[in-house]
Amino acid sequence: MRAVIETKRPVGRLSAAELRARWRRLADDPLVAAIPYKLELNERGSIEVSPAAPRHALLQAFVARELQRLLPAGTSFTECPVETEIGVRVPDVVWASADFLSRHSLDDPFETAPELCVEVLSPSNTRAEIEAKVSAYLAAGAQEVWIVNENRVEMIGPDGPRSSSELGIDLALPP
Asked: CATH assignment of 52-162, given 3.90.1570.10, 3.40.50.1100, 3.30.70.2330, 3.30.565.10?
C-alpha cells in the first residue's frame, strides 16, 4: 500500500525548481533518512511512501546486477531520483551510459532520465500509476522503460511496447 503525506502547500503543481529544492531538503533531513521506505514526491510536492518487500528487493538487485553485467559501458544503480512531469520519481533501477553520467554527474535529482528506467511491480502498484510513471520517464528523456513483474519484463519505448530491448540485451528473470 502506498501512503501519501500531504504538505501544507497550496494545491497545484510545483515548478521544477520548487520540486528540486524540496527534494534536496528532504534528502538532507535526518528524520526523513530514518524512514525505512522508498520515498517519492508527486507534482504537488507531497511525499509518497512505499513499503518494501523481499521479492521486490530480490528482483531489484537482480536487475541491477544483470544490467551492469550485460551493459558494462555504463552504470546501473537502484532507487535513483529523477525529475519528471509528475514529480520526483524514483525508478527501482536505472542504467546510465558513461556519456549521460559525464553530462549529469550525480545531480540530485537527475533533471533528465537516464537511458533506461526500470519499475519492479509491487502488489500495491496500480496499472494507472505505472502507466503514468512510464510516460513520465519517457517524457524526461528515457530511451526505454522496463516493467518487471514476477515472471516477465515488459519493455516500452517512446513508440510504445517493444518485443525486445533496443539496448541489445535480453533479461531472463530468476525463478
From this structure: 3.90.1570.10
